[in-house]
Write a structure and sequence with these properties.
single chain, 175 residues, 90% helix
Length: 175
C-alpha cells in the first residue's frame, strides 16, 4: 500500500496532520463561532416568541378594555336617557301643577269677583230701596198731608218696593 500512495504522491502523515488540523479547527470554530451564534439565535428566537406572546396578551387586554369601555359607555348612555326621561316627567308634572294651581286661582278670583259683584248689587239695591222709601215717604206725606205711623208707613213702602223689584228682576216670579 505504501507504493500506491507513493505513486499518487499522497503522504499519509500529511493526511493525518490535515485530519488532526481540521478536527482542531472544527473544535475551535464550534466553541468560538457556532456555539455563540447558536446561543444568539436561540435568544433571538426566545425574544421574538416572547414579543409575540406579549403582543397577543396586549391584544387580549385591549379587547377586554374595549369591551369594558363599551359596556360602561352603554351604562352611561342608559343613565343619561333615564335622567332625561326623569327630567321630562318632572317638568311635565311641574307644568301640570302650575296649570292646575292657575286654574284654581282663576276660579277663586272669578268666584270672588262674582261674590263682590253680587254684594255690591245687593248693597245698591238696599241703597236704592232706602232712597225709594225716603222719596215715597216724602211724597206720601205731601199727598196725604198727614203723617202715618212709622210702622204702617214702612210696611206699605216695603210691599210696594217688593212688588216693583220682583217685576224688575228677570226670571223671578211674583208671589
Amino acid at each position: 500500500m505504501g507504493n500506491i500512495l507513493g505513486e499518487l504522491n499522497i503522504n499519509p502523515v500529511l493526511i493525518l496532520v490535515n485530519i488532526i488540523g481540521f478536527g482542531v479547527l472544527f473544535l475551535l470554530a464550534k466553541n468560538m463561532v457556532f456555539t455563540p451564534i447558536g446561543k444568539v439565535l436561540t435568544e433571538r428566537d426566545l425574544e421574538i416568541s416572547s414579543g409575540y406572546d406579549r403582543l397577543d396578551a396586549d391584544q387580549r387586554e385591549m379587547q377586554r378594555l374595549k369591551g369594558d369601555y363599551e359596556t360602561r359607555l352603554e351604562q352611561i348612555e342608559g343613565e343619561a336617557r333615564e335622567k332625561i326621561s326623569s327630567a321630562i316627567k318632572e317638568a311635565q308634572a311641574t307644568r301640570d301643577k302650575i296649570v292646575s294651581d292657575a286654574t284654581v286661582q282663576a276660579r277663586e278670583i272669578v268666584a270672588k269677583a262674582e261674590a263682590d259683584a253680587e254684594r255690591e248689587r245687593e248693597q245698591a239695591m238696599i241703597t236704592l230701596r232706602q232712597q225709594i222709601v225716603d222719596l215715597a215717604l216724602g211724597a206720601t206725606t205731601k199727598v196725604v198731608g198727614e203723617s202715618l205711623d212709622a210702622d204702617r208707613h214702612g210696611r206699605l213702602i216695603d210691599e210696594y218696593i217688593a212688588k216693583g223689584v220682583l217685576s224688575i228682576r228677570p226670571g223671578v216670579a211674583e208671589a
